[in-house]
Amino acid sequence: MKGLNQQEFITWADKYLRGELSREDQLLFETYCAENPGKAELFAQHKAFLTTMVKAESRSSFKRKLQRVAQDYHEAHASKPAAKVINIWDRLKLNAAVAAAIAIVSVFSTLWLTGYYKNLKKTTSDYSALRRDMNTVKRNVNAQNAAIRNIHNSKDDVKETMHYGATGFMITKNGYVVTNYHVITGADSVHLQNHKGESFKADIVFTNPEKDLAILHINDSTFKLTRSIPYTFKRQDADIGEDVYTIGFPRDEAVYGQGYLSSSTGYAGDTLAYQISIPVNPGNSGGPLLDKEGNVIGIISGKQKGIDGAAFAIKTKALMETLNSIPADSLKGKNVVLNNKNLLYNLSRTDQIKKLQDYVYIVKVY
Amino acid sequence: MSKEKSDIQIDSEIVNGIREGDNLAIQQLYQMHFPPIAHMIINNRGSREEAKDIFQETVMVLYNKIVDHDFVLSSKLQTFLYAVAKRLWLKHLTRGEAKYRTDSIDDYGESLTAEEAIDDHEIKEANLVQMEDALNGLGEPCKTILYDFYIQGQSMAAICEKFGYTNADNAKTQKYKCLQRLKKIFFKK
Protein backbone atom coordinates (compact mmCIF):
# COMPACT_ATOMS: atom_id res chain seq x y z
CA MET A 1 0.00 0.00 0.00
CA LYS A 2 3.00 2.23 0.35
CA GLY A 3 3.49 3.01 -3.30
CA LEU A 4 0.04 4.59 -3.77
CA ASN A 5 0.21 7.52 -6.18
CA GLN A 6 -1.88 10.65 -5.74
CA GLN A 7 -4.57 9.68 -8.21
CA GLU A 8 -5.13 6.29 -6.64
CA PHE A 9 -5.22 7.85 -3.20
CA ILE A 10 -7.82 10.44 -4.23
CA THR A 11 -9.99 7.74 -5.75
CA TRP A 12 -9.72 5.78 -2.54
CA ALA A 13 -10.50 8.90 -0.49
CA ASP A 14 -13.55 9.62 -2.63
CA LYS A 15 -14.79 6.12 -1.99
CA TYR A 16 -14.19 6.61 1.75
CA LEU A 17 -16.06 9.88 1.75
CA ARG A 18 -18.95 8.48 -0.22
CA GLY A 19 -19.23 5.57 2.22
CA GLU A 20 -18.68 2.99 -0.50
CA LEU A 21 -16.04 1.17 1.52
CA SER A 22 -16.71 -1.70 3.84
CA ARG A 23 -16.17 -1.24 7.54
CA GLU A 24 -12.86 -3.03 7.27
CA ASP A 25 -11.59 -0.89 4.43
CA GLN A 26 -12.64 2.26 6.24
CA LEU A 27 -10.42 1.33 9.13
CA LEU A 28 -7.64 0.51 6.71
CA PHE A 29 -7.96 3.98 5.12
CA GLU A 30 -7.91 5.66 8.48
CA THR A 31 -4.80 3.82 9.59
CA TYR A 32 -3.16 4.57 6.25
CA CYS A 33 -3.82 8.23 6.77
CA ALA A 34 -2.47 8.04 10.31
CA GLU A 35 0.67 6.40 9.02
CA ASN A 36 1.24 8.83 6.18
CA PRO A 37 0.99 12.43 7.44
CA GLY A 38 1.58 13.76 3.94
CA LYS A 39 -1.37 11.84 2.56
CA ALA A 40 -3.47 12.80 5.59
CA GLU A 41 -2.91 16.43 4.80
CA LEU A 42 -3.83 15.86 1.19
CA PHE A 43 -6.98 14.10 2.35
CA ALA A 44 -7.96 16.99 4.64
CA GLN A 45 -7.39 19.47 1.85
CA HIS A 46 -9.37 17.38 -0.59
CA LYS A 47 -12.21 17.05 1.84
CA ALA A 48 -12.35 20.78 2.50
CA PHE A 49 -12.21 21.46 -1.16
CA LEU A 50 -15.10 19.16 -1.86
CA THR A 51 -17.14 20.72 0.93
CA THR A 52 -16.60 24.15 -0.55
CA MET A 53 -17.58 22.85 -3.92
CA VAL A 54 -20.79 21.32 -2.65
CA LYS A 55 -21.60 24.48 -0.78
CA ALA A 56 -20.93 26.67 -3.76
CA GLU A 57 -23.09 24.48 -5.88
CA SER A 58 -26.02 24.40 -3.50
CA ARG A 59 -25.65 28.09 -2.93
CA SER A 60 -25.80 28.86 -6.61
CA SER A 61 -28.77 26.57 -7.06
CA PHE A 62 -30.48 28.33 -4.19
CA LYS A 63 -29.65 31.66 -5.75
CA ARG A 64 -31.18 30.56 -9.02
CA LYS A 65 -34.34 29.50 -7.24
CA LEU A 66 -34.45 32.78 -5.40
CA GLN A 67 -34.07 34.71 -8.60
CA ARG A 68 -36.87 32.76 -10.22
CA VAL A 69 -39.12 33.42 -7.26
CA ALA A 70 -38.16 37.08 -7.34
CA GLN A 71 -38.98 37.27 -11.00
CA ASP A 72 -42.35 35.62 -10.50
CA TYR A 73 -43.07 37.86 -7.59
CA HIS A 74 -42.22 41.04 -9.48
CA GLU A 75 -44.17 39.97 -12.49
CA ALA A 76 -47.20 39.36 -10.30
CA HIS A 77 -46.78 42.72 -8.60
CA ALA A 78 -45.93 44.74 -11.65
CA SER A 79 -49.13 46.75 -11.41
CA LYS A 80 -48.34 47.85 -7.88
CA PRO A 81 -47.07 51.37 -8.63
CA ALA A 82 -50.28 52.17 -10.52
CA ALA A 83 -52.30 51.10 -7.53
CA LYS A 84 -50.21 53.41 -5.42
CA VAL A 85 -50.95 56.37 -7.66
CA ILE A 86 -54.65 55.64 -7.51
CA ASN A 87 -54.42 55.53 -3.74
CA ILE A 88 -52.83 58.94 -3.64
CA TRP A 89 -55.50 60.26 -5.98
CA ASP A 90 -58.23 58.80 -3.82
CA ARG A 91 -56.73 60.46 -0.81
CA LEU A 92 -56.29 63.84 -2.44
CA LYS A 93 -59.45 63.87 -4.56
CA LEU A 94 -61.43 66.04 -2.18
CA ASN A 95 -58.57 68.49 -1.67
CA ALA A 96 -58.03 68.75 -5.40
CA ALA A 97 -61.73 69.36 -6.04
CA VAL A 98 -61.90 72.10 -3.40
CA ALA A 99 -58.73 73.73 -4.70
CA ALA A 100 -59.99 73.64 -8.26
CA ALA A 101 -63.34 75.12 -7.25
CA ILE A 102 -61.66 77.96 -5.36
CA ALA A 103 -59.34 78.60 -8.27
CA ILE A 104 -62.20 78.77 -10.75
CA VAL A 105 -64.30 81.06 -8.55
CA SER A 106 -61.40 83.41 -7.87
CA VAL A 107 -60.35 83.57 -11.51
CA PHE A 108 -63.79 84.41 -12.80
CA SER A 109 -64.65 86.82 -10.00
CA THR A 110 -61.35 88.63 -10.58
CA LEU A 111 -62.05 88.84 -14.27
CA TRP A 112 -65.53 90.13 -13.56
CA LEU A 113 -64.30 92.69 -11.02
CA THR A 114 -61.65 94.05 -13.36
CA GLY A 115 -64.27 94.58 -16.05
CA TYR A 116 -62.77 92.04 -18.38
CA TYR A 117 -66.16 90.78 -19.52
CA LYS A 118 -67.39 94.24 -20.45
CA ASN A 119 -64.39 94.67 -22.72
CA LEU A 120 -64.74 91.17 -24.02
CA LYS A 121 -68.36 91.72 -24.93
CA LYS A 122 -67.51 94.89 -26.76
CA THR A 123 -64.73 93.33 -28.76
CA THR A 124 -66.61 90.19 -29.60
CA SER A 125 -69.70 92.10 -30.71
CA ASP A 126 -67.56 94.30 -32.96
CA TYR A 127 -65.90 91.26 -34.29
CA SER A 128 -69.05 89.31 -34.97
CA ALA A 129 -70.66 92.26 -36.63
CA LEU A 130 -67.73 92.54 -38.97
CA ARG A 131 -67.99 88.92 -39.76
CA ARG A 132 -71.65 89.01 -40.44
CA ASP A 133 -70.93 91.90 -42.65
CA MET A 134 -68.36 89.89 -44.55
CA ASN A 135 -70.88 87.10 -45.02
CA THR A 136 -73.41 89.52 -46.34
CA VAL A 137 -70.84 90.86 -48.70
CA LYS A 138 -69.98 87.38 -49.93
CA ARG A 139 -73.58 86.60 -50.60
CA ASN A 140 -74.78 89.85 -51.99
CA VAL A 141 -72.09 92.25 -52.98
CA ASN A 142 -69.33 92.05 -55.49
CA ALA A 143 -65.91 90.66 -54.69
CA GLN A 144 -64.18 94.02 -54.93
CA ASN A 145 -66.26 95.36 -52.11
CA ALA A 146 -65.72 92.39 -49.91
CA ALA A 147 -65.58 93.29 -46.24
CA ILE A 148 -66.79 96.78 -46.85
CA ARG A 149 -69.57 97.65 -44.57
CA ASN A 150 -72.69 98.22 -46.52
CA ILE A 151 -74.23 101.56 -45.98
CA HIS A 152 -77.88 100.96 -46.29
CA ASN A 153 -80.29 102.15 -43.81
CA SER A 154 -82.30 99.58 -42.03
CA LYS A 155 -85.45 101.54 -41.44
CA ASP A 156 -87.55 98.67 -40.36
CA ASP A 157 -86.60 95.94 -37.99
CA VAL A 158 -88.92 93.42 -39.56
CA LYS A 159 -86.46 91.46 -41.61
CA GLU A 160 -89.03 89.54 -43.63
CA THR A 161 -90.08 92.61 -45.56
CA MET A 162 -86.48 93.49 -46.52
CA HIS A 163 -87.22 97.12 -45.94
CA TYR A 164 -84.07 99.05 -46.61
CA GLY A 165 -83.32 102.59 -47.44
CA ALA A 166 -80.46 104.26 -49.25
CA THR A 167 -79.70 107.07 -51.66
CA GLY A 168 -79.79 107.30 -55.43
CA PHE A 169 -79.42 110.13 -57.93
CA MET A 170 -80.54 110.88 -61.43
CA ILE A 171 -78.11 110.47 -64.29
CA THR A 172 -80.30 111.40 -67.24
CA LYS A 173 -83.28 113.68 -67.54
CA ASN A 174 -85.44 110.86 -68.92
CA GLY A 175 -85.53 109.09 -65.57
CA TYR A 176 -82.46 106.89 -65.16
CA VAL A 177 -81.21 106.72 -61.61
CA VAL A 178 -78.10 105.07 -60.25
CA THR A 179 -77.62 103.47 -56.85
CA ASN A 180 -75.59 100.62 -55.32
CA TYR A 181 -76.24 97.03 -56.21
CA HIS A 182 -76.15 96.03 -52.56
CA VAL A 183 -79.04 98.41 -51.88
CA ILE A 184 -81.51 96.79 -54.22
CA THR A 185 -80.34 93.20 -54.02
CA GLY A 186 -83.21 90.89 -53.17
CA ALA A 187 -85.74 93.65 -53.75
CA ASP A 188 -89.38 92.98 -54.57
CA SER A 189 -90.05 96.56 -55.53
CA VAL A 190 -88.12 99.81 -55.47
CA HIS A 191 -89.54 103.25 -54.81
CA LEU A 192 -87.80 106.57 -55.14
CA GLN A 193 -88.79 109.54 -53.05
CA ASN A 194 -87.54 113.07 -53.57
CA HIS A 195 -87.02 115.71 -50.91
CA LYS A 196 -90.50 117.10 -51.52
CA GLY A 197 -92.02 113.81 -50.46
CA GLU A 198 -93.14 112.66 -53.93
CA SER A 199 -92.71 108.96 -54.41
CA PHE A 200 -92.20 107.16 -57.71
CA LYS A 201 -92.06 103.53 -58.60
CA ALA A 202 -88.87 102.42 -60.30
CA ASP A 203 -87.74 99.40 -62.33
CA ILE A 204 -84.38 97.82 -62.07
CA VAL A 205 -82.96 98.16 -65.55
CA PHE A 206 -79.50 96.76 -65.06
CA THR A 207 -77.26 95.57 -62.28
CA ASN A 208 -73.52 95.10 -62.10
CA PRO A 209 -72.64 93.13 -58.97
CA GLU A 210 -68.88 93.30 -59.62
CA LYS A 211 -68.87 97.09 -59.59
CA ASP A 212 -71.68 97.26 -57.02
CA LEU A 213 -73.84 99.41 -59.29
CA ALA A 214 -77.52 99.27 -60.23
CA ILE A 215 -79.32 101.33 -62.85
CA LEU A 216 -82.98 102.09 -62.13
CA HIS A 217 -85.56 103.72 -64.32
CA ILE A 218 -88.48 105.69 -62.92
CA ASN A 219 -91.60 104.06 -64.26
CA ASP A 220 -94.43 106.09 -62.84
CA SER A 221 -97.22 108.10 -64.48
CA THR A 222 -96.86 110.92 -61.97
CA PHE A 223 -93.24 111.42 -62.86
CA LYS A 224 -92.63 114.39 -65.13
CA LEU A 225 -89.55 114.63 -67.23
CA THR A 226 -87.28 117.06 -65.56
CA ARG A 227 -85.28 119.82 -66.99
CA SER A 228 -81.73 118.98 -67.78
CA ILE A 229 -79.59 117.73 -64.99
CA PRO A 230 -77.40 120.40 -63.40
CA TYR A 231 -74.26 118.33 -62.87
CA THR A 232 -71.89 116.61 -65.26
CA PHE A 233 -69.81 113.44 -64.88
CA LYS A 234 -66.08 113.77 -64.64
CA ARG A 235 -64.51 110.84 -66.46
CA GLN A 236 -60.92 111.42 -65.45
CA ASP A 237 -59.67 110.39 -62.04
CA ALA A 238 -59.88 113.11 -59.46
CA ASP A 239 -56.74 114.09 -57.53
CA ILE A 240 -55.92 113.35 -53.94
CA GLY A 241 -56.73 116.21 -51.63
CA GLU A 242 -59.64 117.42 -53.71
CA ASP A 243 -62.47 119.03 -51.80
CA VAL A 244 -65.54 116.81 -52.16
CA TYR A 245 -69.06 116.67 -50.77
CA THR A 246 -72.13 114.49 -50.90
CA ILE A 247 -75.83 114.53 -50.20
CA GLY A 248 -77.48 111.43 -48.84
CA PHE A 249 -80.35 110.10 -46.79
CA PRO A 250 -79.06 108.46 -43.66
CA ARG A 251 -82.42 109.60 -42.29
CA ASP A 252 -85.58 110.87 -43.98
CA GLU A 253 -84.11 114.34 -44.51
CA ALA A 254 -81.25 115.03 -46.87
CA VAL A 255 -77.93 115.31 -45.10
CA TYR A 256 -74.96 117.16 -46.46
CA GLY A 257 -71.48 115.77 -45.89
CA GLN A 258 -68.18 117.40 -46.75
CA GLY A 259 -64.62 116.11 -46.86
CA TYR A 260 -61.68 115.41 -49.10
CA LEU A 261 -60.45 112.70 -51.36
CA SER A 262 -57.86 110.84 -49.33
CA SER A 263 -56.68 108.07 -51.63
CA SER A 264 -57.01 107.18 -55.28
CA THR A 265 -57.76 103.52 -54.52
CA GLY A 266 -60.53 101.93 -52.54
CA TYR A 267 -60.75 99.05 -50.15
CA ALA A 268 -57.84 96.61 -50.48
CA GLY A 269 -56.33 98.51 -53.39
CA ASP A 270 -59.51 98.58 -55.48
CA THR A 271 -58.61 100.85 -58.44
CA LEU A 272 -62.26 101.45 -59.38
CA ALA A 273 -62.93 103.31 -56.13
CA TYR A 274 -61.66 106.24 -54.09
CA GLN A 275 -61.06 106.48 -50.45
CA ILE A 276 -62.69 109.59 -49.13
CA SER A 277 -62.82 111.24 -45.77
CA ILE A 278 -66.47 112.14 -45.26
CA PRO A 279 -68.59 111.14 -42.34
CA VAL A 280 -70.98 108.63 -43.90
CA ASN A 281 -73.58 106.46 -42.25
CA PRO A 282 -75.91 103.63 -43.20
CA GLY A 283 -78.22 105.21 -45.78
CA ASN A 284 -75.50 107.17 -47.58
CA SER A 285 -74.97 104.32 -50.02
CA GLY A 286 -75.62 105.35 -53.60
CA GLY A 287 -75.23 109.05 -52.93
CA PRO A 288 -73.41 111.29 -55.45
CA LEU A 289 -69.87 112.42 -54.70
CA LEU A 290 -69.19 115.81 -56.20
CA ASP A 291 -66.15 118.03 -56.46
CA LYS A 292 -66.27 121.75 -55.79
CA GLU A 293 -67.18 122.58 -59.39
CA GLY A 294 -70.23 120.32 -59.25
CA ASN A 295 -68.88 117.38 -61.25
CA VAL A 296 -69.95 113.93 -60.13
CA ILE A 297 -66.74 112.03 -59.48
CA GLY A 298 -68.14 108.97 -57.70
CA ILE A 299 -70.90 107.10 -55.92
CA ILE A 300 -70.69 106.52 -52.18
CA SER A 301 -70.58 102.78 -51.55
CA GLY A 302 -69.33 101.89 -48.08
CA LYS A 303 -66.82 102.29 -45.34
CA GLN A 304 -64.33 100.20 -43.55
CA LYS A 305 -65.06 99.12 -40.03
CA GLY A 306 -62.61 99.96 -37.32
CA ILE A 307 -60.81 102.66 -39.30
CA ASP A 308 -61.67 106.28 -38.79
CA GLY A 309 -62.76 108.30 -41.80
CA ALA A 310 -62.23 105.57 -44.35
CA ALA A 311 -65.26 105.73 -46.63
CA PHE A 312 -65.24 104.55 -50.22
CA ALA A 313 -66.80 105.81 -53.39
CA ILE A 314 -67.04 104.05 -56.74
CA LYS A 315 -65.37 106.06 -59.50
CA THR A 316 -67.43 107.60 -62.31
CA LYS A 317 -65.32 105.58 -64.73
CA ALA A 318 -66.94 102.43 -63.37
CA LEU A 319 -70.36 104.00 -63.87
CA MET A 320 -69.51 104.80 -67.49
CA GLU A 321 -68.35 101.25 -68.12
CA THR A 322 -71.55 99.94 -66.60
CA LEU A 323 -73.73 102.23 -68.70
CA ASN A 324 -71.90 101.18 -71.84
CA SER A 325 -72.42 97.52 -71.04
CA ILE A 326 -76.23 97.80 -70.73
CA PRO A 327 -77.79 95.75 -73.53
CA ALA A 328 -79.93 97.78 -75.93
CA ASP A 329 -82.98 95.58 -75.14
CA SER A 330 -83.00 96.65 -71.51
CA LEU A 331 -83.25 100.33 -72.43
CA LYS A 332 -86.57 99.99 -74.32
CA GLY A 333 -85.68 102.82 -76.67
CA LYS A 334 -84.93 105.30 -73.94
CA ASN A 335 -81.27 105.99 -74.48
CA VAL A 336 -78.95 107.03 -71.78
CA VAL A 337 -77.77 110.46 -72.79
CA LEU A 338 -75.55 112.05 -70.23
CA ASN A 339 -75.66 115.72 -69.59
CA ASN A 340 -72.50 117.59 -70.50
CA LYS A 341 -73.42 121.05 -69.42
CA ASN A 342 -72.49 121.90 -65.88
CA LEU A 343 -74.96 124.30 -64.32
CA LEU A 344 -73.33 124.28 -60.92
CA TYR A 345 -70.04 125.77 -61.96
CA ASN A 346 -69.14 128.97 -60.08
CA LEU A 347 -72.14 128.69 -57.80
CA SER A 348 -71.75 128.83 -54.06
CA ARG A 349 -72.02 125.54 -52.22
CA THR A 350 -75.49 126.33 -50.85
CA ASP A 351 -76.78 127.22 -54.29
CA GLN A 352 -75.22 124.10 -55.73
CA ILE A 353 -77.10 122.04 -53.16
CA LYS A 354 -80.39 123.79 -53.78
CA LYS A 355 -80.17 122.92 -57.46
CA LEU A 356 -78.82 119.50 -56.82
CA GLN A 357 -81.21 118.15 -54.23
CA ASP A 358 -84.12 117.82 -56.66
CA TYR A 359 -82.20 115.04 -58.37
CA VAL A 360 -81.23 113.03 -55.32
CA TYR A 361 -83.71 110.43 -54.10
CA ILE A 362 -84.30 108.18 -51.17
CA VAL A 363 -84.29 104.67 -52.51
CA LYS A 364 -86.85 102.59 -50.64
CA VAL A 365 -86.56 98.91 -51.11
CA TYR A 366 -89.32 96.47 -50.20
CA MET B 1 -50.53 34.88 22.10
CA SER B 2 -51.62 32.31 19.61
CA LYS B 3 -50.69 34.67 16.79
CA GLU B 4 -47.20 35.07 18.22
CA LYS B 5 -46.85 31.34 18.27
CA SER B 6 -48.00 30.93 14.73
CA ASP B 7 -45.50 33.60 13.62
CA ILE B 8 -42.67 31.64 15.18
CA GLN B 9 -43.95 28.48 13.57
CA ILE B 10 -44.06 30.09 10.17
CA ASP B 11 -40.54 31.45 10.68
CA SER B 12 -39.10 28.07 11.54
CA GLU B 13 -40.95 26.47 8.65
CA ILE B 14 -39.37 28.95 6.30
CA VAL B 15 -35.92 28.37 7.80
CA ASN B 16 -36.26 24.62 7.36
CA GLY B 17 -37.59 25.08 3.88
CA ILE B 18 -34.63 27.21 2.90
CA ARG B 19 -32.22 24.67 4.30
CA GLU B 20 -33.76 22.07 2.01
CA GLY B 21 -34.01 24.45 -0.91
CA ASP B 22 -37.81 24.28 -0.98
CA ASN B 23 -39.34 26.54 -3.60
CA LEU B 24 -42.53 27.14 -1.68
CA ALA B 25 -40.62 28.31 1.36
CA ILE B 26 -38.67 30.78 -0.77
CA GLN B 27 -41.89 32.06 -2.25
CA GLN B 28 -43.39 32.51 1.16
CA LEU B 29 -40.30 34.29 2.37
CA TYR B 30 -40.48 36.66 -0.55
CA GLN B 31 -44.15 37.43 -0.15
CA MET B 32 -43.94 38.03 3.56
CA HIS B 33 -40.70 39.92 3.89
CA PHE B 34 -40.00 41.67 0.64
CA PRO B 35 -42.65 44.43 0.89
CA PRO B 36 -41.51 46.01 4.19
CA ILE B 37 -37.86 45.93 3.17
CA ALA B 38 -38.64 47.33 -0.25
CA HIS B 39 -40.66 50.03 1.47
CA MET B 40 -37.74 50.90 3.73
CA ILE B 41 -35.31 51.12 0.83
CA ILE B 42 -37.61 53.08 -1.45
CA ASN B 43 -38.29 55.52 1.38
CA ASN B 44 -34.54 55.99 1.74
CA ARG B 45 -33.71 57.13 -1.74
CA GLY B 46 -33.70 53.67 -3.23
CA SER B 47 -35.34 52.40 -6.36
CA ARG B 48 -37.42 49.26 -6.70
CA GLU B 49 -34.58 47.61 -8.60
CA GLU B 50 -32.15 48.38 -5.82
CA ALA B 51 -34.63 47.02 -3.29
CA LYS B 52 -34.75 43.81 -5.26
CA ASP B 53 -30.96 43.47 -5.24
CA ILE B 54 -30.64 44.27 -1.56
CA PHE B 55 -33.34 41.80 -0.62
CA GLN B 56 -31.63 39.11 -2.66
CA GLU B 57 -28.37 39.73 -0.85
CA THR B 58 -30.20 39.70 2.47
CA VAL B 59 -31.70 36.33 1.71
CA MET B 60 -28.26 35.03 0.75
CA VAL B 61 -26.92 36.14 4.13
CA LEU B 62 -29.75 34.29 5.80
CA TYR B 63 -29.10 31.28 3.62
CA ASN B 64 -25.43 31.12 4.53
CA LYS B 65 -26.27 31.40 8.17
CA ILE B 66 -28.83 28.64 7.92
CA VAL B 67 -26.59 26.28 5.98
CA ASP B 68 -23.42 26.75 7.97
CA HIS B 69 -24.43 26.54 11.56
CA ASP B 70 -27.16 25.13 13.57
CA PHE B 71 -29.00 28.30 13.02
CA VAL B 72 -31.26 29.36 15.83
CA LEU B 73 -33.54 32.31 15.42
CA SER B 74 -32.87 34.60 18.34
CA SER B 75 -35.56 37.00 17.18
CA LYS B 76 -38.33 37.10 14.65
CA LEU B 77 -37.21 36.40 11.12
CA GLN B 78 -38.65 39.73 10.04
CA THR B 79 -36.51 41.62 12.53
CA PHE B 80 -33.37 39.80 11.45
CA LEU B 81 -33.98 40.33 7.75
CA TYR B 82 -34.88 43.96 8.28
CA ALA B 83 -31.70 44.61 10.23
CA VAL B 84 -29.53 42.87 7.65
CA ALA B 85 -31.19 44.69 4.77
CA LYS B 86 -30.74 47.98 6.56
CA ARG B 87 -27.02 47.39 7.11
CA LEU B 88 -26.59 46.32 3.52
CA TRP B 89 -28.43 49.35 2.24
CA LEU B 90 -26.37 51.66 4.44
CA LYS B 91 -23.21 50.05 3.14
CA HIS B 92 -24.46 50.39 -0.38
CA LEU B 93 -25.15 54.06 0.18
CA THR B 94 -21.83 54.86 1.84
CA ARG B 95 -19.96 52.99 -0.84
CA GLY B 96 -20.94 55.83 -3.09
CA GLU B 97 -22.86 53.73 -5.50
CA ALA B 98 -25.92 55.72 -4.73
CA LYS B 99 -25.52 59.44 -4.87
CA TYR B 100 -26.32 60.49 -1.36
CA ARG B 101 -25.58 59.28 2.06
CA THR B 102 -28.51 59.08 4.36
CA ASP B 103 -28.60 58.98 8.11
CA SER B 104 -32.30 58.58 8.35
CA ILE B 105 -32.19 54.90 9.12
CA ASP B 106 -32.10 54.51 12.87
CA ASP B 107 -30.08 51.92 14.66
CA TYR B 108 -31.78 49.07 16.39
CA GLY B 109 -30.49 46.51 18.87
CA GLU B 110 -30.54 43.90 16.16
CA SER B 111 -27.96 45.74 14.10
CA LEU B 112 -25.00 44.16 15.88
CA THR B 113 -26.09 40.63 15.02
CA ALA B 114 -26.75 41.77 11.51
CA GLU B 115 -23.31 43.33 11.27
CA GLU B 116 -21.65 40.09 12.34
CA ALA B 117 -23.77 38.07 9.99
CA ILE B 118 -22.87 40.29 7.10
CA ASP B 119 -19.13 40.26 7.84
CA ASP B 120 -19.21 36.51 8.18
CA HIS B 121 -21.23 36.30 5.01
CA GLU B 122 -18.81 38.44 3.07
CA ILE B 123 -15.81 36.28 3.90
CA LYS B 124 -17.57 33.08 2.94
CA GLU B 125 -19.14 34.70 -0.01
CA ALA B 126 -15.73 35.56 -1.41
CA ASN B 127 -14.61 31.96 -1.07
CA LEU B 128 -17.78 30.56 -2.61
CA VAL B 129 -17.86 33.05 -5.42
CA GLN B 130 -14.32 32.01 -6.23
CA MET B 131 -15.41 28.40 -6.35
CA GLU B 132 -18.37 29.24 -8.52
CA ASP B 133 -16.15 31.13 -10.90
CA ALA B 134 -13.71 28.24 -10.97
CA LEU B 135 -16.49 25.81 -11.78
CA ASN B 136 -17.83 28.08 -14.48
CA GLY B 137 -14.36 28.49 -15.92
CA LEU B 138 -13.81 24.77 -16.07
CA GLY B 139 -15.87 24.07 -19.12
CA GLU B 140 -17.52 20.88 -20.37
CA PRO B 141 -17.44 17.94 -19.91
CA CYS B 142 -15.32 18.37 -16.76
CA LYS B 143 -17.94 20.48 -15.05
CA THR B 144 -20.69 17.92 -15.57
CA ILE B 145 -18.50 14.99 -14.59
CA LEU B 146 -17.52 16.62 -11.32
CA TYR B 147 -21.04 17.79 -10.71
CA ASP B 148 -22.48 14.36 -11.27
CA PHE B 149 -19.90 12.60 -9.16
CA TYR B 150 -19.38 14.89 -6.18
CA ILE B 151 -22.66 16.71 -5.92
CA GLN B 152 -25.24 14.37 -7.34
CA GLY B 153 -23.27 11.42 -5.87
CA GLN B 154 -23.67 9.29 -8.99
CA SER B 155 -21.60 6.15 -9.37
CA MET B 156 -18.59 6.00 -11.62
CA ALA B 157 -20.37 3.41 -13.78
CA ALA B 158 -23.28 5.74 -14.50
CA ILE B 159 -20.96 8.59 -15.45
CA CYS B 160 -18.99 6.16 -17.63
CA GLU B 161 -22.18 5.28 -19.49
CA LYS B 162 -23.41 8.87 -19.78
CA PHE B 163 -20.21 10.16 -21.35
CA GLY B 164 -19.50 7.04 -23.38
CA TYR B 165 -16.18 6.07 -21.87
CA THR B 166 -15.02 2.58 -22.83
CA ASN B 167 -14.17 1.55 -19.28
CA ALA B 168 -14.43 2.87 -15.76
CA ASP B 169 -10.67 3.43 -15.53
CA ASN B 170 -10.73 5.92 -18.36
CA ALA B 171 -13.57 7.78 -16.67
CA LYS B 172 -11.71 7.76 -13.38
CA THR B 173 -8.61 9.19 -15.00
CA GLN B 174 -10.68 11.86 -16.70
CA LYS B 175 -12.40 12.76 -13.48
CA TYR B 176 -9.10 13.01 -11.65
CA LYS B 177 -7.67 15.29 -14.31
CA CYS B 178 -10.74 17.47 -14.12
CA LEU B 179 -10.48 17.72 -10.38
CA GLN B 180 -6.82 18.68 -10.58
CA ARG B 181 -7.65 21.37 -13.11
CA LEU B 182 -10.40 22.74 -10.92
CA LYS B 183 -8.09 22.84 -7.92
CA LYS B 184 -5.51 24.61 -9.99
CA ILE B 185 -7.96 27.28 -11.08
CA PHE B 186 -9.41 27.64 -7.60
CA PHE B 187 -6.12 27.98 -5.74
CA LYS B 188 -4.49 30.14 -8.32
CA LYS B 189 -6.95 32.92 -7.72
TrEMBL record, chain A:
Any Pfam family: Trypsin_2
A single GO BP: proteolysis
Transmembrane annotation, as ranges: 94-117
Position of the signal peptide: none
Record key words, sorted: Hydrolase, Membrane, Protease, Transmembrane, Transmembrane helix
Molecular function in Gene Ontology: serine-type endopeptidase activity
Top-level taxon: Bacteria
Species this chain originates from: Sphingobacterium gobiense
Annotated protein name in UniProt: Serine protease
Protein's UniProt keywords contain Heme: no
Family: Belongs to the peptidase S1C family.
InterPro entries: Chloro_Bact_Ser_Proteases (IPR051201), Peptidase_S1_PA (IPR009003), Peptidase_S1_PA_chymotrypsin (IPR043504), Peptidase_S1C (IPR001940)
